[in-house]
Design a protein that fits this description.
271 residues; alpha/beta; 60s Ribosomal Protein L30, Chain: A; Alpha/beta knot; 2 domains; 7-stranded parallel sheet; 31% helix; tRNA_m1G_MTases_N; RNA binding; RNA methyltransferase activity
Length: 271
């Protein structure tokens, strides 16, 4: 690796960290993919362990001397540049105080085809228009912990590689396989063709409790969670094999989608 000291945050050599927002980085190498920014040593370590290709690092000078950060550089290519800057310079980057002193710019990997990922899985989660990165990250963390084999998203959903999503997920977005369904496709039909029974988590009169034995008995199960504001689309519910609710008390009728996913994964996906 090549270590370079930076004293001006406007130095063009660190433009990946300072010039572009995450949406612009997504298309940075278009048509050949893009870039994502990983932050905190824990998240970066998980990304690298799962094969992420680092392009550059930006590190606060005191953090650069710590063992936990030094370990990140042990197996990287010698062509990768590590930019080191004092705190008063690097603090001008929005949100840097949350990074624990280190950022990594990595090339975005190609996502698997939905059919290929479905063929390898028996318990999957579907995020239908879940647009809050914090919720997406929390769902991935629960998915990794509780036996979900893959996560699928519809296109309005937040990118799991967004910094906030990856940070909340503690890097598990790099461990749990995931992909997007083709935009505007009938993804329920795709799931059915792959042999999955579809469970929509929704407050409907015909909903069965999450503990219903026929749910866990299914060989292949796809669990759908809807957008934070309006829930799962009516068309999706109509095409689902089951509509399910989490029984609750004290006149509470719903949970945040991230909390609901954790309860659901524990019941339906844990071995």
């Amino acid at each position: 690796m090549e270590v370079i000291t930076i004293n001006d945050i406007n130095d063009e050599r660190v433009e990946l960290f300072t010039k572009y927002n995450e949406a612009q980085l997504y298309h940075y190498f278009e048509p050949n993919g893009g870039v994502f920014i990983a932050e905190t040593p824990e998240v970066i370590k998980r990304a690298l362990n799962r094969g992420a290709e680092p392009l550059a690092f930006l590190v606060e000078e005191k953090a650069f001397e710590t063992e936990v950060v030094r370990q990140l550089f042990e197996n990287i290519d010698e062509s990768v540049k590590v930019f080191v800057a004092p705190l008063n310079v690097i603090n001008n980057i929005t949100g840097f105080n949350l990074t624990r002193g280190v950022l990594a710019a990595c090339r975005r990997p190609l996502l698997p085809e939905p059919a290929d990922l479905l063929a390898q899985s028996k318990r999957v989660a579907i995020l239908e228009d879940v647009m809050n990165p914090t919720n997406v990250g929390a769902i991935f963390r629960s998915a990794a912990a509780l036996g979900v084999e893959a996560v699928f998203l519809t296109h309005p959903s937040a990118d799991p590689f967004y910094r906030r999503a990856a940070r909340v997920a503690m890097g598990t977005v790099f461990q749990v396989p995931w992909t997007y369904f083709v935009k505007d496709s009938d993804y329920i039909e795709t799931l059915h063709q792959a042999g999955f029974k579809v469970v929509s988590m929704a407050l409907k009169e015909n909903a069965i409790p999450l503990s219903a034995p026929e749910l866990k008995e299914q060989e292949k199960l796809a669990i759908v969670f809807g957008t934070e504001s309006t829930g799962i689309k009516d068309d999706t519910i109509a095409k689902s094999d089951y509509v399910t609710i989490i029984p609750m008390y004290n006149e509470v009728d719903s949970l945040n989608v991230a909390a609901a996913s954790a309860v659901t994964f524990w019941e339906l996906c844990s071995k």
